[in-house]
Each structure stands twice: as structure tokens, then as C-alpha cells.
Amino acid sequence: MSVVGERLQPTLFERSRPGRGGDKIPHPPKDALDRLPASARRKTPPALPEINEPEVVPGWAPRGDR
Amino acid sequence: MLEALGIADVDALFDDIPVALRASRLDLPEPQPELELAARLEALAARNRTDLASFLGAGVYRHWTPPAVDQLLLRGEWYTAYTPYQPEISQGTLQSIYEYESLIGELMDLDVVSASHYDGAAATAEAALMTCRATRRTRVLVSRAVHPHYRQTVAAYFGGGLEVDEIPLVADGESAGTTDVAALERLLADPDRPVAGVLAGHPNFFGLLEPMPEIGRLAHAAGALFVAVVEPVSLAVLAPPGSYGADIAAGEGQPLGIAPQYGGPYLGLLASTDALVRQIPGRLVGMTTDVDGRRGFVMTLRAREQDIRRDKAASNICTNQALLALAASIYVATLGPHGLRDVAALGAARAAELELALAAVGAPRLYPGPYLNEFAIRVPGARDVHRRLLDRGILAGLALADIEPDDETLADALLVCATEVTTSDEIARFAAALEDVFGGRPPIGVEVGAGAERSERPRARAGSPR
């Protein structure tokens, strides 16, 4: 019996498209982090998914009953 | 069933518990109709001060949460604290946990993430225990700048032959308020008491950035593991634990879309390198394929767990905070990497604005080192000033004497923070109220905008906090 597979949605990471999402809060000043030592700063952003809210929300809505 | 068990009544099941330790009759009020109970709870809730301009952080932070987070959490299908044992009927829940673990892994830059723990303190204590299991040593060193409640929780977990020693902080100079690495080196050098793990917070309890690469290097040179205790939103802009050699990272997940709540529930984050995957407690969910080659999600490496291995398990608490882990996933996915960076950077900008405003009215920073969005300020008579500011509608962070009453260096200090929800108007109101409490002039001895000397307030001045 196979009950998995077709009903699963792609993961958040598979649905990611560069440049999507964001713009939820005001942009900070460009120099907001300048007072932090360079050695303490993150070199590359975390590879989190980039998804628009209308695309991200339905992913959870029907999933709980599966 | 009683007959099958060969006992006369249910009370016989508790015969092994000494009578003196059993609960006597529970002193509870009579049951109330739901309508009346709801009214009573609403009346209690109305006593909460929601009108305050809050600068309180100290481990729990106010953030703006996209409405989608709380809306999705209302779906009853998610209402369980438990990871499901039957993958064939639980693919949705398992996928959500797999995604949570993957998202937190990216933030931490570490390989393995547990399905969650009760809170940041519990996750930190579990991390400390992991270092003992992995090294077969029995002593851990915890920086005094790790959250006091976390240190207390580690101490509570460490009974039965395990030892906790505290690493003191630098007392003065540019590094004041951070972990004393020279003292750490001395503590690590005792050949008769080898160290399993070194724990440091970043940012630490006072909001300061710690020399994490240096602490990790010293720990590893002594054969110990390095545990970073972190705040997740900061990881959008600060170097993540994996980048500076942390073997384990623990932290409080509340800032990721979970409202500040008195007493929780909260979300314990715990992550480690792949080398420690068999030592990490809690559920792990993996992606796999079924017999037909189709994708599925399952709990994995279950031989670590207490329902399989009993007393040899990596942990005997594996209840997870699934609903709050889901909140964190929705929050992170909705904001994305750029949104999360904006949250952290805007909080840093607001905090810098707060620092300037408070210094201008005579409350300079207590410690000079770099910080992200939280810092301690020097305020003579801090506890009294805190109370008087509350009367003026300002929640002026935490009087550090309330949480560290035995530390004289913290007697005249408030711990304050700002996040993206802090407004310039709130900052101006805080500064004006503080100036009012100070009596219109900065306390004598404080040089505004410079590293200030300890101040003494004149007793006679009107509006003096003492």
C-alpha cells in the first residue's frame, strides 16, 4: 500500500524562487549594521526559501489532515 | 482491568509512593459554567498592561508577526505536541517538522536539528548533557553571561555526578561584560577535571557579542565541545554557530513568530554537527522513499529515543513543541532571508537610536562592547527608577538587580532592548520620562556620551530616584 507520494506538496525549499517574498516590514537604514565588527557579521545570507505569501500559505492549509 | 491486574482499586497503583509524598485532597474551586469562566478569564486578561511602551527583552522579544502565522495555527489538524508514530497517516505533520528542522539548520549553519524542546533553557541543558555523553567527561563550563535562567536549568539537570563551573566575565575595559577567555583557559587547564563542554551565549545575556571563535578554539584545544547559545533572529545578520566551529547550538525560538507569553509555551531550538547526530535528543524527521520509490517523511534514528532504549536513551524528554515549531516555520518562510535580515537590522538601528537618546539624558551604556539590539545602561537606583517609569507608561526593560541580586556591579543597571516594532516616538517618551525621573538633569558624575564613571545621586534633589 502506498499512501504517500502524490498527495505531498513540494517542500518549502523546492518552491523557492530567488527574489520572492520580503517587503513585510520597513527597510532598515543602509548603515544599520555598520557598527558591528565585520568578523561578527554573517558572510552569506541563510539559504532560506524565498516565497510569496499567497504561495506559502496554502501549503500549510490542507496539509494537516494528510 | 482492576481484576486482571489483581488489585481492588485504583489507589493500589500508587502504593509504591510514600504516603507523605502523595497529594492530599486538591483544594480547587467548584466547577463553573464556561460562559462565567470565560468572563472571569477576560477580566483577568484586562489587568495586563498592554498600554506600555516596552523595552523589555532579556530572552523574550517582541516582533511583528505576519497574520498568516496565527491564522494557520488555528487549524485543528496541527493541535498536537507530539511527533506522530505512524507515518502512513501523518505525512503532513512529518513534512512540516522536516521543513522546520531544515529551516533552523540553515539559520544555524549546522547539520542536524531536533524536532524541538520545551524552551531555550531546556535545549541549553540538553546541549550540556550531550557534551558529557559525547566526551564521556562529567564537567561543563558555562559563561556567567549565559541567561541566568538557562544556567539555573543546566544546574538543575546536572545532578548525579555531573559538575557545572561558571566562567567569570571581564570586569572592565573594552571587553567588560563578556566571557573572560583568560579565565576560561585556566579552567580548561586542570588535568584532573577534564571539561566536556563550554557554553557561551551570543549575543550574551547583556546583549554583547562574544569572542565565539576564540572560545571555541580554546574548548577544542582542551578536547571539549563548544556550545553556542543563540537568538535566532540575530542569525540573519550575525555569523552562525556552524561558521565559528560550534559543535552544538541551542536557543529560544520565541522570536520566530511566537508572541511573548508569561511562562510560555515557548520553543527550544537544538542543533548539532553530523558527528553528534546519535547524541542529540528529541525526534528527528527525515525524507525517504516508499517501496514504490515515492517520497515520504519518517522519524529517523529512533534508537536514540527513550521508547526504544529506555535508560540508555539520548534523552527521556522527547515531547516536542510541534505547534510552535510550525509557527516558527511559517514565520521564517513568510519573511524569507531578506525579511529576516530586515527584522534584525531594523532592530539594530532602533537600538542605536535608543542608546543615543538614553545617553543624552544621563543613562549611558554599562559596557562598551559591540551589541546588536539589546544593551545594559547605567541608572543609579535602577529598581526604583524602573518602578517610577512604569507609572509613566514605560516598561524600562529589566532591572538587572532583580535577576542577579548578588552581583553588586549590576545594582545600578537596566537591560533594555529595541526591535523593529519599537518606534521613535516610544524612544522619545522613554528618554523624556527618564529625564523627568532624574529631575531634569543627568545624575552627577555621568558624562553624557562618554564612558561614564559610577555616579552618585544627591539625596536632596527633587525627583531623585532614591
Describe the structure.
The complex is a heterodimer of chains A (66) and B (466). Chain A is mostly loops and 66 residues long. Helix content of chain A is 12%, strand content 0%. Chain A is built from 1 helix and no strands. Chain A has one helix at residues 53-60. The radius of gyration of chain A is 18 Å and the shape is elongated. By secondary structure, chain B is of the alpha/beta class. Chain B has 2 domains: 67-331, Aspartate Aminotransferase, domain 2 (3-Layer(aba) Sandwich), CATH 3.40.640; 336-456, Aspartate Aminotransferase, domain 1 (Alpha-Beta Complex). In chain B, 33% of the residues lie in helices and 13% in strands. Chain B has helices spanning 2-5, 34-45, 67-73, 91-108, 120-135, 148-157, 181-188, 212-221, 306-309, 322-360, 382-391, 400-403, 424-437, and strands spanning 53-54, 112-113, 139-143, 163-167, 197-202, 225-230, 248-252, 268-272, 285-289, 295-299, 374-378, 394-395, 398-399, 413-417. Chain B has a 7-stranded mixed sheet, with helices on both faces. In chain B, strands 11-14-13 form a 3-stranded antiparallel sheet. In chain B, α4 (91-108) packs parallel to α10 (322-360), α7 packs parallel to α8 and α10 (322-360) crosses α13. The longest helix of chain B has 39 residues, at 322-360. The chains are: A little secondary structure (66), B alpha/beta (466). Chains A and B meet through α1 of A and α3, α4, β10 and α10 of B.
